[in-house]
Write a structure and sequence with these properties.
There is one protein chain. It is globular and about 45 Å long. The relative contact order is 0.11. The protein folds into 2 domains: 1-125, Rossmann fold (3-Layer(aba) Sandwich); 126-212, Orthogonal Bundle (Arc Repressor Mutant, subunit A). The two termini are 33 Å apart. The chain is α/β, with parallel strands linked by helices. Helix 1 links the parallel strand 1 (2-4) and strand 2 (28-30). A 5-stranded parallel sheet has the order 2-1-3-6-7, with helices on both faces. The chain has a two-stranded antiparallel sheet with strand order 4-5. Helix 7 (162-169) crosses helix 8 (173-186). It has helices spanning 8-19, 33-39, 59-69, 109-120, 128-133, 147-157, 162-169, 173-186, 197-207; strands at 2-4, 28-30, 47-51, 53-54, 57-58, 74-79, 98-102, 134-136, 209-211. Helices cover 43% and strands 15% of the residues. The longest helix is centred in the last third of the chain and has 14 residues, at 173-186.
């Protein structure tokens, strides 16, 4: 794992908390984009935590350059501001394995670890606080979903598996799967072999909703 953060106190806190977690090995710690490119070796890191606002660059640009060298690298973006829409600018062939957490929400260590694990596996996790405040824009495809389908999309956006969604909503796993198939069809996200429909649904959720 790698941590790239230009605020010394926050960086030290992150590293301290992460190294205390069983099975977590922080192998690279950088204060900026330039040092990160030198320290993060392709194939040597599963997932990197990148501050969006770095003193010598942008976390998204840094993430793209790191992913160009290592396609399997997961990227978790951190920011003090709600700039989650930056994920919409990612190239489609790089859109999987990116997540976004807010520094100012009620993010817990459990949420951070969940995001790191899911992102390392190619998933996408959005900050739960921001997701729960999101409301669909009028006239959008997301707004056309039923209340239950919208709940399912919100939980997918938080990186929950079908089993976890079923438990949270007290549904059967088959019901969750049926809801997802209906959602994909409504959002025109039928699997085509080259696009992850879960990630695509999350990106459409970002694009067609606003935080209140």
């Amino acid at each position: 794992m790698a941590v790239v953060e230009d605020q010394p106190l926050y960086r030290d806190m992150l590293v301290s908390l992460l190294t205390a977690e069983p099975g977590v090995d922080v192998v690279a710690v950088a204060s900026g984009a330039v040092s990160a490119r030198e320290l993060i070796i392709p194939g040597g890191v599963d997932v990197a935590i990148l501050d969006v606002e770095l003193g010598d660059g942008n976390g998204v640009g840094l993430g793209l350059s790191l992913r160009a060298r290592d396609a399997a690298l997961g990227i978790v973006l951190l920011s003090s501001h709600d700039v989650m829409t930056l994920l919409l600018d990612l190239p489609e062939d790089m859109s999987s394995g990116w997540s976004y957490l807010s520094k100012t929400s009620s993010t817990t260590m459990a949420t951070l670890m969940h995001a790191l694990r899911e992102t390392a596996a190619g998933g996408t996790v959005l900050d739960p606080g921001l997701v729960n405040r999101a409301r669909p824009r009028s006239g959008s495809a997301i707004a056309g979903l039923s209340a239950r389908q919208y709940q399912v999309v919100q939980l997918v956006a938080q990186g929950l598996t079908n089993a976890a969604i079923a438990e949270r909503l007290e549904l059967s796993p088959r019901s969750v799967e049926n809801h997802l198939n209906t959602i994909y069809a409504a959002l025109d996200l039928e699997p085509n072999g080259s696009r992850n429909p879960r990630v695509a649904a999350v990106l459409q959720f970002i694009e067609e909703s606003s935080r209140v």
